[in-house]
């Protein structure tokens, strides 16, 4: 598996993964705009040339915020999410980040377990943060371990 920066030809696959995952509804336009912003790290995972997941984070000062993260259905439970999250933390650390913060759906136990393996802890709850369906977000944060 290769973790790489997003490329122009990746957008259709990224959009499909986002729709399939059903966890966010940014859409291609918003994702493209985010990719062009200062401090943003936008990575994709590729297997045999196929985009199988993506992650977007924004580094501000000594912190990286995970903005969007999804793995294609047939690629889940194969280490893709772990590889993407690890790569994001590495790139963010290179840019001076020492902490990571994110929101995750309260019901997304697989994602929560992944973040906990990286040392993140739940530090708050945002009531009714997500729509479709309405659900609380758990705020998680932790240190980036070099």
UniProtKB/TrEMBL annotation:
Its EC number is 2.3.1.266. Signal peptide: none annotated. It catalyses: N-terminal L-alanyl-[ribosomal protein bS18] + acetyl-CoA = N-terminal N(alpha)-acetyl-L-alanyl-[ribosomal protein bS18] + CoA + H(+). This is [Ribosomal protein bS18]-alanine N-acetyltransferase. GO terms for molecular function: protein-N-terminal-alanine acetyltransferase activity. GO terms for cellular component: cytoplasm. Residues 1-141 form the N-acetyltransferase domain. It is found in: Cytoplasm. It is an enzyme of class 2 (transferase). Transmembrane segments: none annotated. Belongs to the acetyltransferase family. RimI subfamily. InterPro entries: AcTrfase_RimI/Ard1, Acyl_CoA_acyltransferase, Bact_Acetyltransf, GNAT_dom. Acetylates the N-terminal alanine of ribosomal protein bS18. Keywords: Acyltransferase, Cytoplasm, Transferase. The keyword Chaperone does not apply.
């Amino acid at each position: 598996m290769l973790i790489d920066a997003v490329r122009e030809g990746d957008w259709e696959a990224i959009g499909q993964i986002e729709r399939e995952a059903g966890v966010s509804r940014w859409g291609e336009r918003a994702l493209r705009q985010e990719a062009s912003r200062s401090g943003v790290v936008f990575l994709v995972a590729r297997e045999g040339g196929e985009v199988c997941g993506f992650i977007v984070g924004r580094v501000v000062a000594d912190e990286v915020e995970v903005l969007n993260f999804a793995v294609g259905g047939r690629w889940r439970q194969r280490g893709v999410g772990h590889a993407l999250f690890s790569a994001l933390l590495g790139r963010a650390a290179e840019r001076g980040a020492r902490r990571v913060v994110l929101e995750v759906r309260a019901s997304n136990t697989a994602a929560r377990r992944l973040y906990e393996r990286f040392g993140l802890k739940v530090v708050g709850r945002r009531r009714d943060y997500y729509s479709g369906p309405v659900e609380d977000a758990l705020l998680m944060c932790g240190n980036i371990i070099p």
